[in-house]
Amino acid sequence: MGADQNTNWRLAAASVLEWWQDAGVDMLVGDDPFDWLGGEEPVALASSPPAQPRGAPLDPPVTATLPATLEELLAWRIGTAAPEAGWGVPLVTASGPTTADLMILIDCPERDSTDSLLGGMAGRLFDRMLAAIGRSRDDVHLASVCAARPAAGRMPRDLEQRLGEIARHHVALAGPKRLLVMGDAASRAILAANVMEARGRLHALNHRVSQTTEVVASFHPRMLLERPALKADAWRDLQLLKRGLE
């Protein structure tokens, strides 16, 4: 009939199967009817906990009890039980009087300071900022969210919640009249907001019965060294901090 009627059905079948595979068909279709538009039956896992109803409160995470006094907390922060104890770098304690009316919270020690907070160039700028409002390190309580400097120089995300809880407990035990948080890490720990979102107004931090600390957010001296144009805003923050402390 003018055409080769000898067909290799094995090769033809293989070609068809290859075409369907390239088209994305990866399963067989049986003769029994099947509801392709229906959802899959849920599979119950014996080890899965029962689901909570929508809107039900979640169980709070189990948190280790923190020291009950400020003196115990300061010792604990540089001991073997501190969250940063395994970092292999020196732990730096808070400084200044524990009864000061003004407390200042930063993120962590400086790279070039292993025995005190805010050393080096950032520390010298910090001292000038304090002097501009008639204060010094001798009459403020200076603390950090991290007792050691992280390897990357920024707050570890996996410890941020725990270190923030410790910082808030520190403020509650110290009970200052005003708190200056300097930098995003310190601002997030206390106010749950970055400096640019929190600065420019007083925030009320209620931490004891009938006792409130007013919080001011501003830039870390390290940031002011990198971006001197922010010093005008930092000066306004210091003026806000000073009002009411005289």
TrEMBL record:
Residues 97-239 form the Uracil-DNA glycosylase-like domain. InterPro entries: UDG_Type-4/5, Uracil-DNA_glycosylase-like, Uracil-DNA_glycosylase-like_sf. The keyword DNA damage applies. It holds the Pfam family UDG. Keywords: 4Fe-4S, DNA damage, DNA repair, Hydrolase, Iron, Iron-sulfur, Metal-binding. The keyword Repeat does not apply. This is Uracil-DNA glycosylase. It comes from Sphingomonas olei.
